[in-house]
């Protein structure tokens, strides 16, 4: 028995329950001993009402059911013997009534034995469902609070990201709402100020460009009129008119390059590219033709016979195509007409402007797309400010497209405008 009481099989649960039973028994015994005999019945009734503990006199004829021979109950009973005496017994049923009963002795002799009855639930381990419910509620409230905090931070950041993307693509971002944490508010204030400064700079630049256009083109118009009226030599007059025209075209290129392309009054709209190319080709007469020699690439599909709609800014796209046609006519030196081709290749719409000039070396392609660069030996007779390809590149980037300059089969240059099909 000593090995059972003190061995390693003892568990904290058994000690806790045995201590609870011993404490209740000792308190009941002390209360009964301290009370007057005539008041003991009332005391037992009060204990039963308040604590749910019942005390019965023990009888030798009592029908009992001992606890099951489990390590826990064996250990509890051994500890009760230790604390209350060897006559202490633990049973789970008394005279047909289930419960938790402890037999203890108050007075000497068998007549002094009593049964202490406690609810059976005190021996059982109950899962604290109410605490689990409260814990789940606290967790949900914590998650909701965290979501509110994250939402309060991420929402203005998302708006700031979208506005920054607009500014990066050249558009004007509207002022952002001032909200969120202090740091986000400071960043939003700074962004709104930057956006306002950019808008003011854009307005000032537009006003400056309008003034430059007026101040430079007005004297050019007077010079053209003076040359027509005053210069009698036809060759000299033609040379002066050509120079004036070139100066006017150069001014136009400067203005086109400096003017933000995304501020065009007309926005994106469905445009029939076949009709657009036909209209451009008609303006140049015999110098430009549509698919004169068939499709420019054997793997492409030609759409010249049917409408091909694309959501784009037609005036900007027209300007890009005209710039490439002007470059081809001016620099190719060929008598063959410039060819316009429209096709679909790898889910991209390809507008090709093809000539039979000397072409451009592949090593010079990227350099010639930059502003103020011109070809030297590749395309003879190069004139102008070197802004034509840079303007085209800027227009196409604003519409999600790109410009490719490739050698044409059989000689010449194939300038390809590639646009995503939307």
Order of helices and strands: HHHEEHEEEHHHEHEEEHEEHHEE
Number of strands: 13
Low-confidence stretches: 1-10, 294-303
- How does the major sheet shape up? 6 strands, mixed
Class per helix and strand makeup: alpha+beta
Instruction: Note the total helix count.
Output: 11
The percent range for strand residues is 15-25%
* CATH architecture group name of the largest domain: 2-Layer Sandwich
- Would you tell me which CATH topology of the largest domain applies? Heat Shock Protein 90
| Rg, alpha carbons | 49 Å
Q: In whole angstroms, how far apart are the ends?
A: 89 Å
Q: Tell the overall outline.
A: rod-shaped
CATH homologous superfamily (4th level) name of the largest domain: Histidine kinase-like ATPase, C-terminal domain
Percent helix among the residues? 40-55%
Count structural domains.
4
Q: According to CATH, what is the class of the largest domain? A: Alpha Beta
Q: Mean of the pLDDT scores?
A: 77
């Amino acid at each position: 028995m000593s090995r059972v009481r003190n061995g390693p099989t003892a568990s904290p649960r058994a000690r806790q329950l045995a201590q609870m039973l011993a404490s209740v028994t000792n308190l009941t015994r002390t209360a009964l001993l301290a009370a007057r005999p005539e008041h003991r019945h009332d005391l037992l009734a009060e204990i039963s009402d308040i604590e749910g503990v019942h005390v019965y006199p023990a009888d030798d004829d009592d029908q009992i059911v001992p606890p099951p021979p489990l390590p826990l109950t064996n250990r509890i009973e051994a500890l009760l013997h230790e604390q209350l005496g060897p006559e202490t017994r633990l049973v789970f049923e008394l005279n047909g009534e289930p419960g938790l009963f402890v037999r203890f002795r108050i007075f000497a002799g068998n007549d002094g034995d009593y049964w202490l009855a406690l609810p059976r639930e005190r021996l059982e381990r109950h899962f604290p469902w109410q605490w689990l419910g409260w814990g789940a509620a606290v967790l949900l409230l914590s998650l909701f609070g965290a979501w509110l905090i994250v939402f309060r931070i991420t929402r203005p950041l998302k708006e700031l990201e979208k506005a920054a993307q607009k500014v990066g693509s050249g558009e004007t971002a509207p002022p952002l709402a001032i909200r969120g944490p202090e740091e986000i508010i400071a960043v939003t204030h700074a962004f709104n100020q930057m956006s306002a400064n950019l808008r003011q700079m854009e307005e000032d630049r537009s006003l400056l460009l309008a003034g430059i256009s007026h101040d430079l083109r007005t004297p050019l118009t007077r010079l053209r009129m003076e040359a027509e009226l005053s210069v009698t030599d036809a060759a000299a007059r033609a040379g002066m008119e050509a120079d004036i025209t070139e100066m006017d075209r150069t001014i136009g290129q400067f203005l086109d390059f400096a003017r933000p392309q995304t501020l065009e009054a007309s926005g994106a709209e469905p445009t029939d590219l076949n009709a657009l190319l036909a209209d451009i080709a008609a303006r140049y007469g015999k110098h430009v033709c549509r698919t004169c020699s068939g499709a420019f690439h054997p793997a492409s599909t030609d759409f010249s016979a049917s409408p091909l709609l694309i959501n784009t800014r037609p005036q900007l796209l027209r300007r890009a195509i005209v710039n490439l046609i002007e470059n081809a006519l001016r620099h190719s030196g060929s008598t063959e007409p410039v060819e316009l081709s429209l096709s679909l290749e790898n889910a991209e719409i390809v507008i090709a402007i093809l000539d039979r000039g000397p072409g451009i070396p592949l090593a010079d392609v990227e350099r010639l797309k930059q502003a103020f660069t011109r070809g030297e030996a590749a395309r003879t007779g190069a004139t102008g400010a070197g802004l034509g390809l840079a303007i085209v590149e800027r227009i196409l980037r604003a519409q999600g497209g790109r410009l490719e300059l490739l050698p044409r089969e059989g000689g010449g240059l194939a300038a390809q405008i590639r646009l995503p099909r939307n």
